[in-house]
User: What shape does this take?
Amino acid sequence: MDRYLNDAHVALVKRVRDFAREAIVPVARELDESAEFPWETVKTMGEMGLLGVPVPKELGGMGLDYLSYILVVEEVAKYDASHAITISAHTTLGTSPILMFGTPEQKERYVPPLASGKVLGGFGLTEPQAGSDAGGTRTRAVRENGGYRLNGSKIFITHAGVGEIFVVTAMTDPDAGTRGITSFVVCKPTVDMEKANSLGFGHDDSLDFAEGVSAGKKEDKMGWRASDTRELLLDDVLVPMESRLGEEGEGFSNFMQTLDAGRIGIAALSLGLAEGAFDTALRYANERQQFGKKIWDFQAVQFGLADMATDIEAGRHLTYHAALLKDQGRPFSKAAAMAKLFCSELSMRATQKAIQILGGAGYTSDYPVERMMRDAKVCEIGEGTNEIQRLVIGRLLICEMAHEGALA
Ligand code: COS
Assistant: This one.
């Protein structure tokens, strides 16, 4: 992977790997069982700068390129996907829309506490009636007293409980379809104030908490169990004009761009999961003896590992390539959808294969591969189902063909 990575990338990966092995590995299994949010390790990730990797230094981030951020998500996911999605949802979904579409005042106000890891952020898009059909939002924002009144509810929102700053979407003009959707920044206090106060992380008194924004039901999930997923309720929330992110009607196009970038993060997370499962299977195959020899010596096992390694190599090229395009300011929507599609399916194949190689041991929680398989499944669903990725790729292929035809 030398063609993609420089010395700084390699050093960053090593720093993250050392941290993950020392701090995340010992707690990952227990956190998965208890479905508790890992406040302590997330605080450390914030102190290390991992909650603001691609954010400019002057706004409290590390000021690194997007590829660095992708490498961080991948490396953390090798050890625990819940920690990786915490970084990913916070950075690409919570922080980047403000960075990309916010006014200078909004950036100054919200980005530093997010990027420095003082508080967690999230993105409120999905609703009971608006999932893959992201334009079907029912949440309404009506102009009132020089601001807007918001009513609606969002579901499956990462950090809706623990987080404090959210970008949410609402319909300002129901007759205008996707062009009637607008984004807003809303704040609410964390649900775990006691923890936040004891750790000195997760709460910022100076934020403009709006009456009526609250966390709803916590989801009991199959995977990503230590990440916080809940409803985000908007009950008669009055926000000032300055809370609007971008112009009225720009919300749909803006969150599509946010999702394009987020999908590279999910590709990286999936890739990390596949790599973690592969490493476990490789080590196990070299230790486990059957019929008087290491199971590695059986061709069936070697072929399985060879397939996994080949898949992973291909996924890495797709993911790093998409990140590189983004860093170079070139169009990357198709590359991001391809990376997300391929890597999420790869992570399912790799984690299942790893369980098969570990046999009965792989089916128990003594090894991380069963957790990894549960964590992998949602990568085929979140930030756009794989059916949506195929649709996005298909549409872009047709656009490209039409464009080439026009040039001919
Ligand atoms: N970047 C910028 N603008 C985009 C865009 C992108 N990637 N994709 C679409 N747009 C624009 C279009 O150009 C169009 O603009 P105009 O109104 O100026 O013509 C507008 O957005 C509407 O686009 P489109 O007609 O393609 O919208 P559809 O309703 O057909 O929806 C899909 C398109 C299905 C691709 C979209 O709804 C989608 O991605 N759904 C999945 C959502 C998702 O990932 N949810 C999970 C969230 S987890 S946080």
